[in-house]
Specification:
The complex is a heterodimer. Chain A is α/β, with parallel strands linked by helices. Chain A has eight helices and twelve strands. A seven-stranded mixed sheet of chain A has the order 1-9-8-5-4-2-3. In chain A, strands 7-6-10 form a three-stranded antiparallel sheet. A two-stranded antiparallel sheet of chain A has the order 11-12. In chain A, strand 6 and strand 7 form a beta hairpin. The longest helix of chain A is centred in the N-terminal third of the chain and has 16 residues. Chain A is globular and about 55 Å long. In chain A, 46% of the residues are buried. Chain B starts with a helix and ends in a 5-residue tail after the last helix. In chain B, helix 5 crosses helix 6. Chain B is of the alpha/beta class. In chain B, the strands form two sheets. A six-stranded mixed sheet of chain B has the order 6-7-8-3-9-10, with helices on both faces. Chain B has a four-stranded antiparallel sheet with strand order 2-1-4-5. Helix content of chain B is 39%, strand content 23%. The chains are: A alpha/beta, B alpha/beta. At the A-B interface, helix 5 of A face helix 3, helix 5 and helix 6 of B.
């Protein structure tokens, strides 16, 4: 891992280390097996490497793949950030973060630029990633061809022989029925001109961030037992048609809290009258902007804590 | 000489003497089947079958159920590997390809470009969870066509050619009648301009009037495109209408073969005689 000097947030804060467990829960042989699969995945960008996924102390679908990847590459020097749908304080993120606090004792952070290892579910942080980051994705269904071809034996052959026509059949269907490519998340990408890959259910808004990204991106699917990766600075192409080029979501609104125009927005229903607000889905990004003095239409008045969904950081930085 | 030959043949699409006196033409066979046998354990599916198929020629394989027709068809179309024997296919670029020893990617590529396979049940041959238009467009996208408008207009053309109204284009195949599904399957196969089509009982589950229309359509398309066809059927009427040449199978053996009219009007083998005499007369 990267030996970033980042001792500011060392977990001096309470959470006691669990006893009776190996560092990061998994035993060393398992971690070695996962690392081998990860290395292979990095060597063949976009290729799904099978691995012997272990039972983890959480249900399938909650990030068992991502957690195994994180457990096998995390080191004492790392600073971990965990997000779920962009937010640091949702159930999944909180429980995975506390899991690693209790089994490794490494520093955790909610700030993207302080983290060295980011486990994420369904979002890529808004703040540009650097070579010092490793991004770990949780993946429910790693096979992008599954929707068209239910047989695993067949999809493997299709990958091997680069028979990717059916991916466009799916996009064709979208245009035929909706007039535009309506796939808005888990939008298929082609890695380095070869393998077609599912980017996990991130919004297609995040697809351009994967292209030529300086950070290493690794994907773990626990139930489906697959690991795949995008090495740093790899070409990632989102599939499209010549007359229907790839495009990302846009909003007429800006973030109600920080006024950001360039971030992915969540819509929040406020009452039964149909009032709603839009806020950044990346809670850390929104916080940083608030601190920097940006304000949106619904920002809380000065002196009072902003009504964002991230409060846990406040005490540290107050 | 060679060019001349192929030109006249394309224009005429009349394979009268394409197969019998082989010495007279320099045209190479499209498909050469050489002593193909297939065993399932110690039971034989088909035994020592050899024949040549020339461009534009339609060969019918007839026989009772269990006679090995479908086994033979699957062997020569590369879907099953024969126990003995070989199948050679002359590719469009002139290369000879041993179907069962060729690398898998080449075989799969042939199957979705230069070949077509029409199943008895259209559901086996169609992608049922996508619209009719996408079914037709799949082969085009498979060979790298990436312009939605062009794919769509090609699909429209083909729907018209197989007599399906183009406002059904975005409907799922399961909303189609059996005959329409079968026509859609044919369009899906023909859109890539294949040279060779395998058909397994293409009119199997259809009623007689729909059958007649489908046969008419098939005959027209095949002649127009100069396709070579291997068609398996138990229906001698279908064979009579479509096939230039017939092979009669029984118990895995080809018991008689020759020009369709010759075989049906003057059957030599006792089984063929039985078969011909069992046709129901109205």
């Amino acid at each position: 891992m990267n030996h970033t000097i980042n001792t500011t947030q060392k977990t001096a804060n309470a959470t006691p280390l669990e006893t009776g467990y190996n560092f990061a829960f998994l035993d060393e042989q398992t971690k070695r097996m996962v690392r081998r699969a990860t290395l292979k995945a990095v060597a063949i960008p976009g290729y799904q490497v099978p691995f012997a996924s272990r039972e983890m102390p959480m249900p399938y679908g909650w990030g068992t793949g991502g957690i195994q990847l994180t457990a096998s590459i995390i080191g004492q020097q790392d600073t971990l950030k965990v997000t779920d749908q962009g937010a640091d304080d949702t159930t999944n993120a909180v429980s995975i973060r506390s899991f690693f606090q209790r089994t490794t004792g490494v520093a955790t952070t909610e700030e993207t630029n302080k983290a060295t290892l980011i486990q994420t579910r369904h979002r890529i942080p808004e703040q540009p990633l650097t070579e010092d980051h490793i991004l770990v994705y949780q993946v429910p269904i790693p096979e992008p061809l599954r929707w068209m071809e239910p047989r695993e034996t067949e999809t493997r052959k299709m990958h091997a022989h680069e028979e990717y026509g059916v991916m466009h059949v799916k996009l064709y269907e979208d245009i035929a029925h909706h007039g535009h490519i309506a796939t808005s998340f888990d939008y298929p990408v082609q890695i380095a001109g070869r393998y077609i890959m599912s980017p996990s259910p991130i919004p297609k808004f995040d697809n351009p961030k994967m292209d030529n990204c300086p950070a290493l991106q690794i994907f773990g699917a626990g139930r489906e037992q697959r690991i795949y990766a995008i090495p740093p600075y790899t070409n990632v192409h989102s599939l499209d048609f010549e007359d229907h080029p790839f495009s990302v979501q846009t909003w007429d609104e800006v973030c109600g809290l920080c006024g950001a125009e360039d971030s992915y927005l969540d819509e929040i229903i406020l009452d039964n009258e149909g009032n709603r607000m839009f806020v950044c889905s990346d809670s850390n990004y929104c916080q940083q902007r608030l601190k920097a003095g940006h304000a949106g239409a619904m920002t809380a008045p000065q002196g009072q804590p902003a009504a964002t969904r991230t409060e846990s950081n406040e005490e540290n930085n107050a | 000489m060679h060019n001349l030959c192929s030109a006249t043949q394309n224009v005429a699409a009349m394979p009268k003497k394409l197969w019998q006196p082989k010495v007279e033409t320099e045209e190479h066979p499209l498909l050469t089947v050489n002593g193909v046998s297939k065993y399932y354990g110690d039971r034989a599916g088909c035994l020592h079958v050899s024949f040549d198929l020339y461009p534009g020629e339609i060969v019918g394989i007839v026989g009772e159920s269990g006679s090995g027709k479908s086994t033979l068809l699957n062997c020569i179309s590369g879907r099953l590997s024969p126990t003995y024997g070989s199948v050679n296919y002359q590719q469009e670029n002139g290369d000879l390809c041993n179907v069962h020893e060729a690398p898998e990617h080449l075989r799969r590529m042939l199957m979705r470009t230069e070949w077509g396979y029409v199943h008895q049940h259209p559901r086996d041959g169609l992608r049922n969870n996508v619209s009719a238009g996408a079914n037709i467009g799949e082969r085009l996208m498979g060979v790298g066509m990436r312009h939605y408008g062009n794919i769509r207009s090609k699909a429209t053309d083909w729907l018209e050619r197989v007599e399906i109204s183009k406002n059904r284009m975005d409907d799922l195949p399961r909303t189609f009648s059996g005959g329409m599904q079968q026509r859609l399957q044919i369009a899906r196969n023909l859109v890539s301009n294949p040279r060779l089509i395998f058909m397994d009982e293409p009119t199997g589950g259809l009623d007689v009037s729909v059958q007649a229309r489908l046969l008419d359509l098939l005959r027209e398309l095949v002649a127009e495109m100069g396709l070579a066809v291997v068609i398996v059927t138990h229906d001698l009427a279908v064979a009579r209408i479509l096939a230039h040449r017939l092979m009669v199978m029984r118990g895995g053996h080809v018991v008689e073969s020759g020009l369709t009219d010759q075989v049906l009007d003057d059957p030599h083998h006792e089984y063929t005689q039985l078969l011909v005499s069992s046709i129901l007369q109205v």
